[in-house]
Amino acid sequence: MAREEVTLLGMWASPLALRIEWALKCKGICYKYIDEDLLNKSQRLLTHNPIHKKIPVLLHGGKSIPESLVILEYIDETWKQNPLLPEDPYERAMARFWAKFVDEKCWTTLPGVFGNEGDEQEKSKEKAIEELGILEKQLEGKKFFGGESVGFLDIVCGWIAYWLPFIEDITGLNLVGETSFPALSAWFKAYLGVPWVKELLPPPDKLRAHLTTFRQKLLSSRS
Ligand SMILES: N[C@@H](CCC(=O)N[C@@H](CS)C(=O)NCC(=O)O)C(=O)O
């Protein structure tokens, strides 16, 4: 089963699809990548994720697995090499706890900073700084969330390391400074410096242009 063809339905600018590519790359799994048009969803996407109709979706052995965190755990359980989740049950539970925190909090708050102006943006910014401060504490004294090497939580949070500077640049706001967030700033560099992490990052100019247009759309839909 583990040797059967692996296909990822993704979208090049999706931080959540990138999570899956990172995990597959870290495990050394060959996969086929299909870039989906999220404005004109394919029958393939609707068939493989009929409930949420979203990417990422992993196809393996005739089965479809949706939801990025679920996919990450599936990958970790299917291919045992380079384990992502810690072995200790308590540590595993905590990695899942923090992954849920990132998806329930930062995944909503950072787009709130990006897609708003004025008071709404200010409120999201305050919340984002508070949540990033919580992650900062988790990292203190460690190189990676996973300790000395990249683990589950690094892959879950990885999008923040790459996307946050674009958010700051495009909005003109400063959220994570090297003085106020030393551990997080050092982790951004360490994570993005991992060869298989770096290799999969979307081209910066293309991403900046995409995000700039996306922000304009978000702002005009709100006005
Ligand atoms: N909780 C889901 C969220 C997936 C998600 O929001 N995917 C976005 C791309 S990053 C998407 O497919 N958006 C299209 C839509 O909402 O219609 C996960 O972790 O996989």
Automatic annotation (TrEMBL):
<dbReference type="InterPro" id="IPR040079">
    <property type="entry name" value="Glutathione_S-Trfase"/>
</dbReference>
<dbReference type="InterPro" id="IPR036249">
    <property type="entry name" value="Thioredoxin-like_sf"/>
</dbReference>
<dbReference type="InterPro" id="IPR045073">
    <property type="entry name" value="Omega/Tau-like"/>
</dbReference>
<dbReference type="InterPro" id="IPR004045">
    <property type="entry name" value="Glutathione_S-Trfase_N"/>
</dbReference>
<dbReference type="GO" id="GO:0004364">
    <property type="term" value="F:glutathione transferase activity"/>
</dbReference>
<dbReference type="InterPro" id="IPR045074">
    <property type="entry name" value="GST_C_Tau"/>
</dbReference>
<protein>
    <recommendedName>
        <fullName>glutathione transferase</fullName>
        <ecNumber>2.5.1.18</ecNumber>
    </recommendedName>
</protein>
<dbReference type="GO" id="GO:0006749">
    <property type="term" value="P:glutathione metabolic process"/>
</dbReference>
<dbReference type="InterPro" id="IPR036282">
    <property type="entry name" value="Glutathione-S-Trfase_C_sf"/>
</dbReference>
<feature type="domain" description="GST N-terminal">
    <location>
        <begin position="4"/>
        <end position="83"/>
    </location>
</feature>
<comment type="similarity">
    <text>Belongs to the GST superfamily.</text>
</comment>
<dbReference type="InterPro" id="IPR004046">
    <property type="entry name" value="GST_C"/>
</dbReference>
<dbReference type="Pfam" id="PF00043">
    <property type="entry name" value="GST_C"/>
</dbReference>
<dbReference type="InterPro" id="IPR010987">
    <property type="entry name" value="Glutathione-S-Trfase_C-like"/>
</dbReference>
<keyword id="KW-0808">Transferase</keyword>
<dbReference type="Pfam" id="PF02798">
    <property type="entry name" value="GST_N"/>
</dbReference>
<dbReference type="GO" id="GO:0005737">
    <property type="term" value="C:cytoplasm"/>
</dbReference>
<feature type="domain" description="GST C-terminal">
    <location>
        <begin position="88"/>
        <end position="214"/>
    </location>
</feature>
